[in-house]
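Illustration: Prepilin-type N-terminal cleavage/methylation domain-containing protein.
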Amino acid sequence: MNKAFTLIELLVVIAVVGIILGISTLYFPKMISQIHVNKTKDRIVTMLETAMQNSITKGYENAPESPEYKLYGLSFDNSTSPLVVKSCTFEGNSPDNLTMNKCESYTLPDDLNVTYGNTPVVFNKRGISTDLTTITLENSFGYNKRITVAGARINVK
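Result:
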């Protein structure tokens, strides 16, 4: 009695493996794109949380010397392609006239569509953002994450 696989059994196994590989390659680009969205979302949330903490611990308002205000926040630079997120200090003599200094940049992946407000997200000394800001990250497959900054809260959906 021979103990071996027949040709038909080998062909069936190869066909099944081929079908599984074919199906998995259809989902692979979608999975990689979702990873880009989640990784970028995590990075932006970390930058926002760091800016909030820096405003609380290192920032100041109404200082007796110039600059009177030194706060921390994020700005989006849409003059470049791909989009760049900048984590900066904001300094000036009034809260309405702050300039960006000492920025760290993070370049977003090319395959993401990003929508955001036109103004920077700046946290005051108490860690509160005065403006409601929504940042939406979306890939070409329609998978999206929304980051909302409202007051001292950073929400992700």
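Reading the tokens back as a structure: The mean pLDDT is 90.
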